[in-house]
Automatic annotation (TrEMBL):
The gene is purN. NCBIfam families: PurN (TIGR00639). It catalyses: N(1)-(5-phospho-beta-D-ribosyl)glycinamide + (6R)-10-formyltetrahydrofolate = N(2)-formyl-N(1)-(5-phospho-beta-D-ribosyl)glycinamide + (6S)-5,6,7,8-tetrahydrofolate + H(+). This is Phosphoribosylglycinamide formyltransferase. Its EC number is 2.1.2.2. Keywords: Purine biosynthesis, Transferase. It is an enzyme of class 2 (transferase). Pathway: Purine metabolism; IMP biosynthesis via de novo pathway; N(2)-formyl-N(1)-(5-phospho-D-ribosyl)glycinamide from N(1)-(5-phospho-D-ribosyl)glycinamide (10-formyl THF route): step 1/1. N(1)-(5-phospho-beta-D-ribosyl)glycinamide binds at residues 14-16. One of its GO terms (biological process) is 'de novo' IMP biosynthetic process. The active site is at residue 112. The keyword Transferase applies. GO terms for molecular function: phosphoribosylglycinamide formyltransferase activity.
Length: 195
């Protein structure tokens, strides 16, 4: 079995990254984590990746000022130098331009802490509670130029419980994220054919 080479882009501790790394340790998993790249020097997830023998890279967006294109071209160069097939965003706190998204059309996925198309953007748990919904969850989707709008790959639900806080709800949703992200990557890596 030819395993697809995956890059995970992070900005922080990388809890979803850790779930992907753990899943990829299985010999029958169709993807290998070949690179963890952060836009934040010293991001916690980089140490975890290195401890697991995974190549790491940092492309500090601050060193590019307001030149988003130059930053993204540096990211793209890292991805190409590691022969990446699929990109997973896992808490990567940068809005990507259509140029970079276009380089990875159908090969870049993201996890979002809500049942899209509801609650795009930030503060999803607090907004769900404010609206009084009874179900909440997480979505893995393809990345397109419009934020949180790409085709849905997989979703997982949790009930909203009486007296829930955003923090308590968020913890249950995070557990779902850690389950569905590796499964969605398995689906994409299995179906994706190298061109």
């Amino acid at each position: 079995m030819s395993r697809k080479r995956v890059a995970i882009l992070i900005s922080g501790r990388g809890s979803n990254m850790a779930a992907l790394i753990e899943a990829a340790k299985a010999t029958d998993y169709p993807a290998e984590i070949a690179l963890v790249l952060s836009n934040v020097p010293g991001a916690g997830g980089l140490d975890l990746a290195a401890a697991n023998g995974i190549a790491t890279a940092t492309v500090d967006h601050k060193s590019f000022g307001r030149d988003r294109e130059a930053f993204e071209r540096a990211v793209q160069a890292e991805l190409e130098s590691h022969a990446i097939d699929i990109v997973c965003l896992a808490g990567f706190l940068r809005i990507l331009t259509p140029w970079l998204v276009g380089q990875w059309q159908g090969r870049m996925i993201n996890i979002h802490p809500a049942l899209l198309p509801a609650y795009k953007g930030l503060d999803t748990h607090a907004r769900a509670l404010a609206d009084g919904v009874t179900r909440h969850g997480a979505t893995v989707h393809f990345v397109v130029p419009e934020m949180d709008a790409g085709p849905i790959i997989l979703q997982g639900e949790v009930p909203v419980l009486p007296g829930d806080t955003a923090e308590a709800l968020g913890k249950r949703v995070l557990a779902v994220e850690h389950r569905i992200y590796p499964e969605a990557l398995r689906m994409i890596a299995t179906e994706y054919k190298l061109v």
